[in-house]
Design a protein that fits this description.
The chain is mainly alpha-helical and 237 residues long. It is 54% helix and 2% strand.
């Protein structure tokens, strides 16, 4: 091996040693004798050296959360992810008037006059289904924009419209059937197939016999009844 090759090899080994020293300098070993104190106020670093302190750190971080604290704020934030409210049947969403829904429900209750709790629940279900149907129709109108048509959204809202329309008519049919059965129970069912009362003299045939004339023609006119005197004279003759 020549002197030049030896120098090249020695320089390569020196570079490896310097590179290893720089890597060791970047690694910091935490001291177990002096653990990092947990501050009383403020957030704590999410990269602690010890996993045993994780629960305490998370608890202190949760106390410093800036989320809603009042009931109004919590109720408002609970609807942040609500887009249309049709999937979960949310009655009132942003932009809708609660008084309008109450007026619709009162009008249906006045029209159908439920007599018990079951009929009242069916009327309320009708009001809710109609309200959600109208919302689905309004959302369909928003799918048409100058840039084009949102086909996916339009198909979704059409499906919700059909679902709530069917629920409305199903509740209406059940309500009408219950009210019809209740009226029959209250008034009493009268059979339409009543036997016809017979007369005091018994059954009278409606086919009046008649003698054919010489030409074989039978008169369709029923003969007038004769008085007893005339009948006796005819029999004597």
């Amino acid at each position: 091996m020549t002197n030049r090759e030896l120098r090249t090899r020695r320089r390569a080994e020196e570079r490896k040693v310097r590179k290893l020293e720089r890597k060791l300098e970047t690694i910091s070993v935490p001291s177990q004798a002096d653990p990092e104190p947990v501050p009383e106020i403020g957030f704590v670093s999410q990269k602690p050296p010890c996993d045993a302190r994780r629960a305490e750190i998370n608890r202190r971080n949760a106390q410093n959360s800036t989320g809603p604290r009042t009931s109004e704020g919590k109720r408002a934030s609970s609807g942040n992810a609500t887009k249309h409210g049709l999937a979960d049947g949310q009655l009132i969403v942003a932009g809708e008037d609660a008084a309008a829904f109450e007026a619709l429900q009162s009008a249906l209750l006045g029209e159908h006059s439920p007599a018990n709790t079951t009929e009242e629940l069916l009327v309320i279900e009708m009001a809710q289904s109609h309200w959600l149907t109208q919302r689905a129709i309004r959302l369909q109108n928003g799918c048409f924009t100058p840039d084009g048509v949102d086909a996916k959204g339009l198909a979704l809202f059409l499906r919700y419209q059909t679902t709530h329309q069917r629920a409305f008519h199903k509740a209406l049919s059940a309500l009408l059937a219950l009210q019809k059965a209740r009226r029959k129970t209250e008034v009493g069912f009268v059979s339409q197939n009543q036997p016809r009362a017979a007369s005091r003299t018994g059954f009278v045939s409606q086919n009046w016999p008649s003698e054919p004339d010489r030409d074989g023609f039978v008169s369709q006119n029923r003969p007038e009844p004769h008085s007893p005197e005339v009948a006796s004279a005819l029999q004597a003759a």
